[in-house]
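Bit of a strange request maybe. I'm writing a small parser for structure token strings and I need a real example to test against, not something I typed by hand. Could someone generate the tokens for this chain?
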Amino acid sequence: MELILWRHAEAEPHAADRAGDQLRELTAKGARHASRMGAWLDRQLPSHCRILSSPAARCVQTAQALGRKFTTAEALNTDSTAERILEAAGWPANRHTVVVVGHQPVLGHVASLIFSGTAQDWKIRKASVFWIASKGDDDPAPFVRLAVGPDIVGKLR
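Reply from user aminoacidic:
Good idea to test on real output. This should exercise your parser:
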């Protein structure tokens, strides 16, 4: 399985209430970064992969930048846990690639839980991806395939 954790791009300032937080949209810079990362990811991903997004507007806009069909999942929302996200993605039993578009600090918790067995505050930068892979039963140890941000993929062709 391959699990790509994609943090949403830069969004408008945080609102005090949860409803307002769910409606925060990407800034112009965030939209550019999401577009850059989405175009690059689209070239890297297999044609058939599952894409899950938090229902928060900033995550939906980030996922839209990929230009593929995706599903919003409440299990990826701002109040989620690493365990809920891993369950939604089917880690590690799923044999397909899954892209998760979500939030900090929970995406960092997901990565640390996979590698260390505990949810820790690992940071994934805005609009960046943390790509985790596992070869499955033959070699079940997960490995980092790639960790990259929009500033780097803009230089890659």
